[in-house]
Design goal:
174 residues; Metal Binding Protein, Guanine Nucleotide Exchange Factor, Chain A; three-stranded antiparallel β-sheet; 22% strand; globular
């Protein structure tokens, strides 16, 4: 019986070691992609982008690609921007388009960074979203059409709106 216990313990330890090694390799490849220059990223250029998905896959991390191009959602309360309080501007991490200023960020308790107003009318595109049996309004980047999150009518004054945004697709500069 002791031999079985030791065998299963060793097997379990080896399994965890293998998973950790895979996660480290994935993190390294994502960091390499983050460090790789994105030729479409600009905080000054406001021209609309029409880029093929294969090209986005090359310049975005796998998590950014999943959210921005496949309309994914990051887990709630995991964003580095959830409780972030620095003063500055939030940009689209895919293309560099200015999206929100920090003065419009508020604590909504929803699990994602929340804002009550975009930086300007052209920075965001609004599209109907009826997935998951709900009627919502999706918000996309006005420059590259990256999926950012959703907007709801339960925000604070002055707009009464809550832009619930995936932090993975946000970039920030002071």
């Amino acid at each position: 019986m002791n031999i079985k216990f030791y065998f299963y313990t060793i097997l379990l330890v080896l399994s965890f070691t293998n998973c950790t090694a895979q996660n480290n390799n994935n993190n390294k490849s994502n960091m390499q992609k983050e460090n790789k220059a994105n030729p479409y990223y600009s905080n000054k250029d406001t021209n609309k982008l029409v880029i093929k998905e294969e090209e986005w896959r090359k310049v975005l991390t796998s998590e950014q690609f999943y959210i921005a191009r496949q309309k994914g959602t990051e887990q709630p309360f995991t964003s580095k921007f959830e409780n972030f309080k620095e003063k500055g501007t939030y940009y689209c991490a895919a293309c560099g388009n200015a999206l929100f200023i920090s003065d419009t960020k508020f604590e909504s308790g929803c699990g994602w960074p929340s804002f009550y107003q975009p930086i300007n009318k052209s920075s965001i595109i609004y599209t109907p979203d009826t997935t998951h049996g709900m009627q919502r309004t999706e918000v996309q980047c006005g420059r590259c059409k990256a999926h950012l999150g959703h907007v709801f009518n339960d925000g604070p004054p002055p707009s009464g709106l809550r832009y619930c945004i995936n932090g993975v697709i946000l970039d920030f500069k002071k």
